[in-house]
Amino acid sequence: MNDVSTVPVWLIVLIVVLVMTQGTSLFVDARKRGLGKWAWFWGIWGSTTFPLPLLLYVLLVVRRQQNGK
Fold it and tell me: Where does the chain cross the membrane (predicted)?
């Protein structure tokens, strides 16, 4: 079960698309919120793992800006 060749190709493609979509979405949203260089951080980190960057982005950026307004 530890062999990568036993993982279906469609699952690998799905994971890659999911992670890249998350990274792109985090980057675009961070740019819209005016986070400057931090947008790159969120975009790159969002392109590496799932779902921790998304959860922390919502908790640290989105909720903080909603509570501050």
Answer: 7-28, 40-62
